[in-house]
């Protein structure tokens, strides 16, 4: 794996004393708490466009003097290890960690525990070690919603029993992927034929496109009646493969994350649905917990999730399935995107039809 200096990717906010907290052994001698956020990659647009700015804004609203450290690992587990170790060396008081490889970061959490630095697993459940909190969505439910949406679309089209589907699951290093897959199989098994199924490294749209091309070659273009894609980026890759193969009409395809391009594809009919995750709620809840931990507080969690070693106090948020007729009352209503962001160029007529202005 490639090594890079942490300093190149860390963004630190200005620090002014006065927020209080339990800061420890800071090289600068500063008593203001330091909160470090680590995100796994940037191919999925949500992380830089939403998770990071929403998290940072909420921390600053709750603790104006808190210092913020930020790093994105670019899907490189070794790079993320260096980033976390550097933050601990700089005196971070709380780690909020969305792991590149959630099954391989127990040693990093252990380093934090040895320094009495609490850890929040953000979006992806870290396994094989105990820590303070897990904040994410009900991932099995996400997969169930995707599977049900695809099944409904196939049933409506009368093709559920007339061909095969392709499943494009997420990265095998992300435990959320297994949950999505479990949920989808609960709905689809025994009701449709799964012609090909892939676990897509790095959630890569390019690799998803290659997998879809392989499936088309193996199964035949006319055999594939639907695609279960675990997120929007991979859905875009699958759509590119199908267009390249000359599909006159694209079969229904699922997604997740409500990426802007996906929302536009849903309106124009290229993609059937997406899972809308209220990232604001996830980021802000994590920020609230991080500030509380930095101040020596530990709020009660509504549930717990087993990670193979411990039952982790957890906040699991509800996903929302969104088809074209629900975009206005969910994504636009919540301000996730403005109508002017969505309704551009060839999407304008579809927006008008959907009542989005």
From TrEMBL:
Position of the signal peptide: 1-23
Coiled-coil annotated spans: none
Keywords: Signal
Predominant location: other
The keyword Signal is annotated on this UniProt entry: yes
Database matches in PANTHER family: D-XYLOSE-BINDING PERIPLASMIC PROTEIN
Name the UniProt record assigns to this protein: Sugar ABC transporter substrate-binding protein
Organism phylogeny: Bacteria, Bacillati, Actinomycetota, Actinomycetes, Micromonosporales
